[in-house]
Design brief:
Layout: E1 2-7, H1 23-36, E2 40-44, H2 50-62, E3 67-73, H3 76-85, E4 92-99, H4 102-109, H5 113-128, E5 134-139, H6 146-158, E6 163-168, H7 175-188, E7 196-201, H8 208-217, E8 222-225, H9 239-248, E9 257-258, H10 265-276, H11 297-305, E10 325-327, H12 333-342, H13 349-365, E11 369-370, H14 371-379, E12 392-399, E13 406-414, E14 417-425, H15 428-440, E15 445-453, E16 462-469, E17 474-481, H16 484-501, H17 510-517
Parallel strand pairs: 1-2, 1-8, 1-9, 2-3, 3-4, 4-5, 5-6, 6-7, 7-8
Antiparallel strand pairs: 10-11, 12-13, 13-14, 15-16, 16-17
Bound molecules: 3-methyl-2-oxobutanoic acid and zinc ion (ZN).
């Protein structure tokens, strides 16, 4: 039997502070989730805002295989908004939620149990008349009275719900309790056989994955997760952890199969990190840089004799390749292109050509180019939508020291035009940013700036990430170079190009998604 995955990175994940995504980013992430093999993509809460409903609409138009899910409160207006936003989806699903715990009924909703049952019956019936696939979530299920929870679930199924989700909304349950609750509901609800049971666990006490697995062992056949466990407060259950637990411990989950293409997990996590600007913690299970590193001598010795001594999964099973020295100054375009393919990129020849030029420039200055360098290079060089309108770095000179005001002279190109400006700043990066601002004649504020090394060695590439805003929107940019000032200017320019190009086109049509899909694997 198949265990389905509903990924809610674009809804619950995006609700976490600092993780909001724009429409293009959501479509890009959704296409990667489709490539990863998830069964359903929860893409937003259409009634929450215009942007949310536009994002759900764009994801609905872009995806072919997974169900596209829109979240709603148990209100007619929310359900109408979701149905509209999902109109173009091949497999639309409306997800209605209503709390069932006494605490939520009394303190938040101010309704009685009978009113709650009536609201569920009405909302699910209303939604079912607009969509054939309805999920109902009993919010705060784990703190609900078990008898009432069973009545709520029975009501939802009788009204037409096809999936019943039992969330541990506040991350309060222990695995034993949570598994028992799921088993109890499935056993006691008379019409339980007509729905797929789902679990959705939060990580407030660090038990989201354990609770999800307990729910699966108890009979749930859908797991609601996010990539890297991002989400409200402490986050949700991490998809990669649940998927690899089921795939690795088949003995503990007999008869269960998954559709996740595990070899695409690492790339999916990388794309999320790139979009959100939050790096993957090195010790993050499954996808962290150290997840497969064996530092201690005893472990290394064991792994060399037989990998099974200290390794329960192979890095390649999750798409992490051994960090061998891969390329250098003498590597040709063919070798570079092959490496890109092995890393999961399938890019058009123009883009490969541009990346190869950048690669050559870096290889002149850095002896060994590793996989992580190549990934950083690709991810930091997203093609602006309108190439001719993009500002490019031609050259820069900085003058800086601890006894002077930093100055920068930056030369940029846009098409055939060249522009140069000199600016001063409290440091060399700030001086460069001000010179860029003077050239593009569009004031912006540097909201956030981060600099890090891509690999560990002395000649590591520097990676700069910026967040800029111009009062109407915020834009991210990323740049890599052996020179951290150059990396900073490149990141700033990526942000500036996004800022200046953002009004020109909004991705979200099927055709645009098809173009993007070709770059996703
Ligand atoms: O945590 C929760 O209960 C939710 C529901 C809306 C499914 O996110
Ligand atoms: Zn949640």
């Amino acid at each position: 039997m198949k265990l389905q995955f509903l990924d809610t990175t674009l809804r619950d994940g995006e609700q976490a502070p600092g993780y909001s995504m724009n429409l293009d980013e959501k479509v890009r992430m959704a296409l990667q989730l489709e490539a990863l093999g998830v069964d359903a993509v929860e893409s937003g809460f259409p009634a929450a805002s215009r942007l949310d409903s536009d994002c759900v609409r764009a994801v609905a138009a872009a995806l072919r295989t997974p169900a596209v899910v829109g979240l709603c409160r148990a209100r007619d207006a929310d359900i109408d908004r979701a149905a509209e936003a999902l109109a173009a989806a091949k497999r639309p699903r409306i997800h209605v939620f209503l709390a069932t715990s006494e605490l939520h009924l009394r303190e938040k909703l101010h309704i009685s149990r009978d009113e709650c049952l009536e609201a569920i019956r009405h909302a699910v019936t209303y939604a079912r008349n607009r969509c054939g696939d309805i999920e109902f979530s009993a919010e705060d299920a784990s703190r609900s009275d078990p008898d009432f929870l069973c009545r709520a679930v029975e009501t939802a199924i009788a009204a037409g719900a096809t999936t019943i989700n039992l969330p541990d909304t506040v991350g309060y349950a222990t695995p034993t309790e949570f598994g028992a609750m799921v088993a109890d509901v499935i056993r006691r609800v008379p019409n339980a056989g007509k729905a797929v049971f789902s679990v959705h666990c939060h990580d407030d006490l660090g038990m989201a994955v354990a609770n999800t697995l307990a729910g699966i062992a108890a009979g749930a056949r859908q797991a609601e997760c996010t990539i890297c466990g991002i989400g409200e407060r402490a986050g949700n259950a991490a998809l990669e952890e649940v998927a690899m637990a089921v795939a690795t411990r088949r003995d503990a989950f007999p008869g269960l199969s998954i559709g996740i293409v595990t070899q695409r997990i690492a790339k999916t996590a990388r794309i999320l990190a790139e979009i959100t600007g939050h790096r993957i913690p090195p010790d993050k299970a499954i996808v962290g840089r150290n997840a497969f590193a064996h530092e201690s001598g005893i472990h290394q010795h064991g792994v060399i004799s037989n990998a099974l001594t200290y390794q329960i999964m192979r890095p390649e099973d999750v798409g992490i390749n051994d960090e061998e020295i891969v390329l250098g100054r003498h590597s040709g375009r063919h070798a570079f292109e092959e490496r890109l393919t092995e890393l999961g990129y399938s890019l058009d020849p123009d883009r490969v050509g541009q990346l190869f030029e950048r690669f050559k420039g870096i290889a002149e200055r850095k002896k060994e180019i590793r996989d992580r360098d190549i990934v950083a290079l690709v991810e930091a060089s997203e093609t602006p939508r309108n190439q001719a309108e993009a500002w490019r770095l031609a050259s820069f000179v900085v003058n800086s020291g601890n006894a002077m005001v930093s100055t920068a002279c930056v030369t940029l190109r846009k098409g055939r035009r060249t522009a140069r400006e000199v600016a001063m700043g409290t440091g060399p990066v700030y001086a460069c940013v001000r010179a860029v601002e003077k050239i593009v004649k569009h004031p912006f504020v540097l909201e956030d700036y981060q600099l890090s090394a891509v690999t560990e060695r002395r000649d590591a590439l520097g990676e700069a990430r910026v967040l800029i805003s111009d009062g109407t929107g915020t834009y991210r940019g990323r740049g890599v170079s052996t020179d951290v000032i150059e990396a900073s200017i490149l990141a700033c320019l990526a942000g500036v190009n996004a800022m200046l190009g953002s009004a020109q086109s909004a991705l979200g049509t099927g055709a645009a998604a098809d173009a993007q899909r070709s770059a996703i694997k």
